[in-house]
Amino acid sequence: MSGMRSDVRISDGVSMCRLRWRGLWDVRNTDDGNRSLLSSLRRFRGGKRGSVMAARAMWKGDLKIGSAKVPFKLYSAAQDQTVRFHILDKKSKTRVKQHMVGESGKEVPNEEIRKGFEIEPGTFVILDEKELETLEPEASREIEITQFVAPREIPPEYYDRPYYLGPDGDQSAYFALTQALRNKEKEGIAHWVMRKQRYAGALRAEDDHLILFTLRNADEVLSAKDLPRPAGRAPDKKELTMAKQLVGLLQGEFDADEYKDKYRQRVKEFIEKKAKGHAPKLHLVKTKRKPASLDKVLSRSIETLQKEKKAA
User: Fold this and answer.
1) Domain limits at 195?
2) Together in a domain, 184 and 47
3) Which residues, listed in sequence order, are joined to residue 63 by a DSSP beta bridge?
4) Is the pTM of this model over 0.85?
5) What is the CA radius of gyration of the chain?
6) Helix (H) or strand (E) holding 238
7) 208-225 residue pLDDT tens
8) What is the four-CA torsion angle of 233, 239, 245, 250, rounded to 10 degrees?
9) CB of 73 within 8 A of CB of 165?
């Protein structure tokens, strides 16, 4: 299929722009392959711009594939919704400040604070800011794709934080790369430096946009081989049959709207009621009972689900 050309129609929300692209099967770890993709991306000019993400970009740069570059803007794909509290003085209800205090109890001024790495109890290697600056990776505005792999080759425990990559300026090359990645069902292995930190990541296409996941380093991921092996007897035939039946009854489609942080909701509702002068009653979470035998647990679960399905 090398060299295959295809016509793609991509909607920009207002009109349809007809793009011609060359698939990622032309990309090899050679200069010829990189030049092939580069020439393909450069063909996409003059297309009307599509809708731009309403979120605020946190970073921008160029997505580099060989000698080809695709401008992008980086957006966070997740946000922390943790309920945060201020630390207050009990009497005055005013905020309290934190100070750096030595073992003697005296406050240490900022200019006298140093960073030290403990190599053995009580022994530290002291590093100053200039020494640490010399160790920082070289700043760059490029995310370099070094190879393409099948998604199944990356174990799920390596995926970390997700980001959206949106087009910056001309969008034709961006949509062409998205289409090629989606059609070939590949993920690009990415390397970049952002805010003085080096990252590795996986770039994939979802619908008509790109998603970049940061990947954990190999020494950060624990092996499942180190976990204790399951002990006890193996399930019998009856238990296996009931387990399969239970899985079948629970089969459905993933709906992200069903998954909420109920604890956070309870905290916010409690705060809102208390702010209005109410004294809401607290309902403690029920403690779990001692589990019964496996076949009894499966039987009760199946019976409950069957009743719910009939009632629905």
Assistant:
1) 5-79+140-220
2) yes
3) 70, 143
4) no
5) 28
6) helix 237-249
7) 899 999 999 999 999 888
8) -50
9) yes
